[in-house]
Design brief:
- By secondary structure, this protein is mainly alpha-helical.
- The protein is 58% helix and 0% strand.
- Helix 1 crosses helix 4, helix 2 crosses helix 3 and helix 3 runs antiparallel to helix 4.
- The longest helix is centred in the N-terminal third of the chain and has 19 residues.
- The protein starts with 20 loop residues before the first helix and ends in an 8-residue tail after the last helix.
């Protein structure tokens, strides 16, 4: 096999620097809450999950984090301490959803990194 037989590594995606992290957080909270409700079942716990993920996201953005992978990993890590026993979701589903929603907001196709 030659090097050309392997796919190119996916480039790291950087979000623009946060101009208003709180506003971004409000958008993420509302968008994630809607996604959670539509993806499976509307549940009260979805609002709490969206709020927690949004808090982590805002804190990371305020600390200057712009890398999408790092943001998703931070949400995954911090959501591991959340009690998902009253939800159909897990920290992995939430972190992946946040990543997808951010990619959508940037106009980046989720398939194939284009």
């Amino acid at each position: 096999m030659s090097d050309s037989d392997f796919a190119e590594p996916i480039e790291s995606i950087e979000l623009p620097p946060a101009e208003d992290a709180a506003k971004e957080g409000q958008w993420l909270k509302a968008t994630l809450h809607k996604w959670l409700d539509e993806e499976f079942l509307p549940e009260i716990v979805n609002e709490h999950i969206a709020a927690r993920a949004s808090q982590v996201f805002v804190r990371q953005r305020m600390e200057g984090e712009n890398n999408l992978n790092a943001l998703v990993l931070a949400i995954l890590t911090e959501m591991q301490g959340y009690d998902f026993s009253k939800s159909f979701y897990s920290e992995f589903a939430v972190a992946n959803a946040v990543g997808d929603l951010l990619l959508d907001s940037l106009g980046i196709e989720r398939c194939c990194g284009n």
